[in-house]
């Protein structure tokens, strides 16, 4: 039997960022768009894949933004944001909000929700949040929001992103 002292301790090789990105592409995630109001009063939004629930008590959401994101700046200015889980069939919405164009909301059906946040129509879930904290880490900023409202359309199937493709997630009829 080998003893710990007999094992050669090897330093792991550095992880290649491209390899890491590719590996994370194998991990399916919801396709989400985050919206808020920019400092100029215009709606702002971004497609994100790094969005999860953080806590049930208190209910909180976590979203990761690139440091240079215009939507991150909008959230910092406005203090509230809306997390949309896109439905299958909203691929064009996801693609529109994935870029840096200023006219992302043109051609997208949306309205102000009860908190006056820009809400995109036809989503599976919309979660309204008040900004709680922003943490800078690596090449992103982690945004933590306290959930203040939830709207659900349980009859719709969400879209998932995996292996660089947007795919339908089939609902088995269970609605929790």
From TrEMBL:
Secretion signal, residue range per the UniProt entry: none
Residue ranges constituting the Flavin reductase like domain according to the UniProt record: 24-168
Ranges in coiled-coil conformation: none
Superkingdom of origin organism: Bacteria
Keyword annotations: Oxidoreductase
Family annotation (InterPro entries): Flavin_Rdtase-like_dom (IPR002563), NADH-dep_flavin_reductase (IPR050268), Split_barrel_FMN-bd (IPR012349)
Gene Ontology molecular functions: FMN binding; riboflavin reductase (NADPH) activity
Family, per entry: Belongs to the non-flavoprotein flavin reductase family.
PANTHER family in alphabetical order: FLAVIN REDUCTASE (PTHR30466), FLAVIN-DEPENDENT MONOOXYGENASE, REDUCTASE SUBUNIT HSAB (PTHR30466:SF11)
Protein name as catalogued: Flavin reductase like domain-containing protein
């Amino acid at each position: 039997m080998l003893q710990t002292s007999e094992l050669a301790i090897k330093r792991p090789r550095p992880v290649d960022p491209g390899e890491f990105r590719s590996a994370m592409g194998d991990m399916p995630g919801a396709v989400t768009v985050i919206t808020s109001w920019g400092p100029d009063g215009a709606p702002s939004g971004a497609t994100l894949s790094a969005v999860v629930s953080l806590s049930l008590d208190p209910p909180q959401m976590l979203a990761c933004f690139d440091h240079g994101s215009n939507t991150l700046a909008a959230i910092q200015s406005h203090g509230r944001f809306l997390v949309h889980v896109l439905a299958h069939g909203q691929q064009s919405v996801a693609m529109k909000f994935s870029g840096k164009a200023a006219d992302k909301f043109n051609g997208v059906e949306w309205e102000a929700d009860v908190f006056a946040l820009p809400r995109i129509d036809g989503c599976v879930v919309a979660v309204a949040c008040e900004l709680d904290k922003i943490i800078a880490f690596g090449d992103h900023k982690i945004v933590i929001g306290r959930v203040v409202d939830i709207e659900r359309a349980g009859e719709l199937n969400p879209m998932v992103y995996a292996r660089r493709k947007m795919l339908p997630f089939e609902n088995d009829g269970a609605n929790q």
